[in-house]
Amino acid sequence: MDTNTNEKTGCLIIGSGPAGYTAAIYASRANLKPILYQGIQPGGQLTITTEVENYPGYPEGIQGPEMMVHFEKQAARMGADIRYGLATQVDFSSHPLKVQIDEEKWIEADSVIISTGASAKWLGIESEQRLNGYGVSACAVCDGFFFKGKPVAIVGAGDTAAEEALYLSKICSEVHMIVRRDEMRASKVMQERVKATPNIRIYWNSETDEVLGSNKVEAVRIRNNQTGEKLEVPVNAFFVAIGHSPNSDIFKGWLEMDEAGYIKTVPGTSRTNIEGVFAAGDVQDKVYRQAVTAAGSGCMAALDAERYLSAKGLH
Q1: Looking at the annotation, which residues are catalytic?
Q2: Fold of the domain spanning 122-240
């Protein structure tokens, strides 16, 4: 290790979505003098959403990127040292804990809060990225409301896709559900509910050929992967529900995770299996995945870190 680049901090926060910035606000107020590295996507997933209407305190709603600017400014005003950079490696074998930034600089920390989030899995078609935020979304709970009374499409076959299709069926006029195989992966009870819902139409053995529209979603072209037949269905929104990937790769081998890579925390806390390492937000939450729950868990992580440091006589 190159000791010339070493730096020491009481609290290092990795990631800058609602969880990371909330942790920074609380840690700063507790005088932990946290250093926060923003990661590959400063502001997290909210920077790729448009209108946010379900976060308390914004009666008129707010644009996702603008809301994350507010979070960042508040954390900075409290005294957090916010930096641009990516955590690329960790060494949790001894204390102080060590985290490498941008593959070059190592930082030593008495406590580490991981809030690296999760990334939605996408299909990988051109129109999906081009129309992202303009009718294409990976979160029906976040964005379904904007398409009230309108026809929408959703792709996916697991419990999340089934849940989101049911959620959309209560708001939208029609839900066109695109399923790749001749069966769903969702639990039997969820499948039965979907099949029993009159305004959900399922397209079996089907894939998304393209999302159509120049500056907003106007239709989806569905391809039957048995016959090759293509069908254009007019819709105002296209929801991708094929899962999320937690951004936890650099912690593999150090922290306990579930089979999908979500970091395990002690129930009711943000504690991981390594003393002094805490996890908050979507990197450890595959159930709720909302800005408000991420912010709440960021608060928990900062309070847990403060108590840990006090108990160890490090603060």
Answers
A1: 139, 142-143
A2: FAD/NAD(P)-binding domain (3.50.50)
